[in-house]
Specification:
alpha/beta; Rossmann fold; Arc Repressor Mutant, subunit A; seven-stranded parallel β-sheet; six-stranded parallel β-sheet; globular; binds adenosine-5'-triphosphate; DNA-binding
Length: 721
DNA sequence: AAGTGCTTGCTTTTT
DNA sequence: GCAAGCACTT
């Protein structure tokens, strides 16, 4: 196995570790993921393990796909056929579909997304006459989700306060409705599987015996349910291999629990712990900055991060006059980096705390006519038209699905309003049926025993829709997924409904078209597979294509690496986010999030903030992120020791406009980004950017003494050195 | 039932 | 500043 030569000793020890439990704990860029993939290859090639005896779990589809590709590079295709490699949820999905005989649901169950969940919780809260203002569906749902992640059922839900009592009641009813809808939510997938394996030795042994090796990536982000799951799956062979980094734990808010390491050590006392030390990704300056930030975290063992990739360049710090300037600075700088051939566009990434922050950055890219790729942000799967069509298909597949029915029963408007819907629910409840079943029966018209419950005006559209659903269900038996899709869209007159010839309408129709393209991959597969995939895949899984910069949240950046990284919005209140101000735990997680962002950079790191920012309404003054103080000042350029270095000249608020004039310029610039210059009073500095404006050259320079200044080349006496 | 216009309250992060 | 949610009208 020649690839073993390229590993350092510790990495090799991890890849070739013998049987038994192994825990690899190591910092960013130390090759954890690399070790995990190579171990898969090693087990197959050297240890005679069959591919289907290997289970490898990741958190995101993207990570799973990437790992699959990396293994493919090491071994021939047929040698890796059958590896069970996927996210926790997709693996649970596969197990659950086969084992429904032990579960309260049937094998055609559907997976509820957050929208569906909220819809059900809202229904329950309303029916229980609970104050929606006091008990926000999202917050109640959060409590339910946390409970499920800890494997706590509604019956076991602890009630210390009155609020707990309410949550418990909602939880119980919510769960009942999920089961009645023949549906599971994301958390159920983990909890059902974990409980199934725990309570049913024969099922557990079937899987535990099959998987000779279980490997888990990003172990620091597992919650209790996930831990229980892998523990059960590894219970027979005890070959469990986990890699993780406590400093990169950024998902505690959704139940991730680093105490799983302690549980692991308790449950597998014979575990070997392997530490990887050397960083192969980043320059030392970047690692030093990262250490500055993470060393201030509490309750952790100090780790030294080192590399032999050299010191590298200093970290750029830029304080923009406002958030528009912040965005155009990023785009301008990327353009410069590309123009000067320092980086490919695809080597650059822009990271931010919240999805909403992508908007200004995108606008700046659009204005500069530069392409980019946006990860996440519900751009496609969150669109109304996409969700609608999926809801129709889900109903065809599983008419019991209450969330989908409520969503689309009146789409396009067919005269079924709130009143009728409420009656439908009531009638269903009285007859111990799901609303969807009553609807299907109403298709028989006056024959149906439920017909009388509705006024004539309400019964007709219900019967109509019920009839349509019934014909789709029959058609689904003989049609392929794309054929069914076309049939549904045509019968609904969905195009006429959404495409009103306006630009927006066309946009919406394009999304439907895109969804149709996705069904084409399922021409030879079942509706079931299509729906499961759609439920588990998300906008986060944007495929890397094209050599263009990536825009993504810090969370989405975990596990990735880029040549040049821009972290924007380094203001207190954004990073750290204001919602974490009053919880020390949350604040620590914000710190780790920043750490994760910094350590994505291979060669160049830009830390950016804006001294004022458009909150809701007008621009508001902001303050630098407290984490910036933890980076040793000598690693940064563009910032004086006193902090607030460059107050923007008034003209700078028009930066975005300058950018546009730039492309129209005829005269050559005298200065280029990266050029070292000297100024009579400010001394030495480095050119950040230069452009022609009104027959003059406007140069942005970072001076060692005063930070970034904007100068006119004709007035300022700048010398190239 | 559905459309209009006004009020509210809101913004982490994701499978 | 905006979207969702509400009351009120037709
Ligand atoms: N022994 C090695 N020789 C050369 N390059 C290496 C070696 N080990 C790892 N690398 C490189 O270092 C980079 C980081 O590796 P990898 O992504 O596996 O790290 P990681 O520990 O999973 O990082 P993180 O925790 O930050 O996601 C990759 O580009 C990888 O190819």
């Amino acid at each position: 196995m020649d690839f073993l030569d390229k590993l350092n000793n510790q990495q090799r020890a991890a890849v070739t570790a013998g049987n038994g439990p192994v825990l690899v704990v190591a910092g960013p860029g130390s090759g954890k993921t690399r070790v995990l993939t190579q171990r898969i290859a090693y087990l197959i090639a050297e240890e005679g393990v069959r591919p289907w005896q290997i289970l490898a779990v990741t958190f995101t589809n993207k990570a799973a796909r990437e790992m699959g590709e990396r293994v493919k590079k090491l071994l021939p295709d047929q040698a890796i056929e059958g590896i069970m490699l996927g996210t926790f949820h997709s693996i649970c999905g596969r197990i659950l579909r086969r084992e429904t005989e032990y579960l309260p649901i049937q094998s055609n169950f559907v997976i509820f997304d957050t929208d569906d969940q909220e819809r059900i919780v809202k229904n329950v809260i309303r029916e229980f006459n609970i104050n929606e203002k006091l008990y926000r569906p999202a917050s109640v749902l959060g409590a339910i989700s946390r409970a499920k992640n800890e494997l706590i059922t509604a019956d076991d839900y602890p009630t210390q306060t009155y609020r707990d009592e309410i949550v418990k009641r909602v939880y119980a009813e919510y769960q009942k409705r999920l089961v009645a809808s023949n549906a599971v939510d994301f958390d159920d997938m983990l909890m059902y599987t974990a409980r199934l394996l725990e309570e049913n030795p024969s099922v557990r042994d079937k899987y535990a015996q099959r998987f000779r090796h279980v490997l888990v990536d990003e172990f620091q982000d597992t919650n209790l349910a996930q831990y229980a799951l892998v523990k059960q799956l590894a219970s027979f062979n005890r070959n469990i291999f986990c890699v993780g980094d406590p400093d990169q734990s950024i998902y505690a808010w959704r139940g991730a629990d680093w105490r799983n390491v302690q549980r692991f050590e308790q449950d597998f006392p014979d575990a070997q712990t392997i530490l990887l030390e050397q960083n192969y990704r980043s320059r030392q300056t970047i690692l030093d900055a990262a250490m500055g930030v993470i060393d201030r975290a509490h309750n952790r063992r100090k780790k030294k991060l080192f590399t032999d990739r050299g010191e590298g360049e200093k970290i750029f710090f830029y304080e923009a006059p406002d958030d528009y300037a912040e965005a155009s600075f990023v785009v301008d700088t990327i353009a410069q980096l590309v123009a000067s051939r320092q980086f490919e566009p695809g080597d650059c990434a822009v990271m931010y705390r919240t999805n909403a922050m992508s908007r200004l950055i995108e606008e700046a890219f659009l204005q500069a006519r530069l392409p980019y790729r946006l990860v996440g942000a519900q751009r496609f799967y969150g669109r109304r038209e996409v969700k609608d069509i999926i809801a129709f298909l889900r109903l065809v597949h599983n008419p019991a699905d209450e969330a989908s029915l409520d969503r689309v029963i009146n789409v396009p408007p067919r005269g079924i309003g709130d009143k009728t819907l409420t009656t439908l629910h009531l009638v269903a409840r009285q007859n111990n049926l799901q609303p969807g079943h009553v609807l299907l029966d109403l298709a028989r018209g006056k024959e149906s025993p439920y017909w009388e419950s509705f006024s004539g005006r309400a019964a007709l559209p219900l019967a109509d829709f019920g009839g349509m659903l019934a014909t789709w269900r029959t058609a689904a038996l003989s049609l392929t997924v794309p054929e069914l899709f076309d049939r549904v869209v045509k019968d609904l007159g969905y195009k006429e409904y959404i495409d009103d010839e306006s630009e927006e309408g066309e946009d919406h129709w394009e999304n439907v078209d895109e969804l149709r393209r996705l069904t084409l991959e399922y021409s030879t597969r079942t509706l079931d597979e299509f729906l499961e995939n759609i439920a588990l895949v998300s906008d986060q899984d944007t495929i890397t294509e094209g050599n263009v910069p990536t825009l993504l949240t810090l969370h989405a950046a975990k596990g990735l690496e880029f040549g040049a990284v821009f972290i924007v919005g380094l203001d207190d209140g954004i990073l750290p986010h204001s919602r974490s101000f009053d919880e020390p735990e949350g604040m620590e997680e914000e710190r780790r999030l920043f750490y994760v962002g910094i350590t994505r950079a291979k060669d160049k790191l830009y830390l950016i903030r804006s001294i004022q920012r458009g909150g809701r309404g007008s621009q508001e003054e902001t303050f630098p992120s407290r984490f910036l103080d933890d980076i040793p000042a000598d690693l940064l350029i563009g910032k004086t020791r006193t902090g607030r270095a460059m107050r923007g000249a008034p003209a700078e608020t028009k930066w975005a406009i300058h950018t546009r004039t730039q492309s129209a310029s005829v005269i050559e610039t005298q200065f280029r980004a990266g050029t070292r210059v000297k100024h009579s009073s400010w001394g030495e500095g480095i050119v950040l950017d230069s452009k022609i404006q009104d027959d003059d050259e406007i140069v942005d320079v970072v001076f060692n003494s005063v930070g970034i200044k904007r100068l006119s080349a004709s007035l300022a006496n700048l010398k190239i050195i």
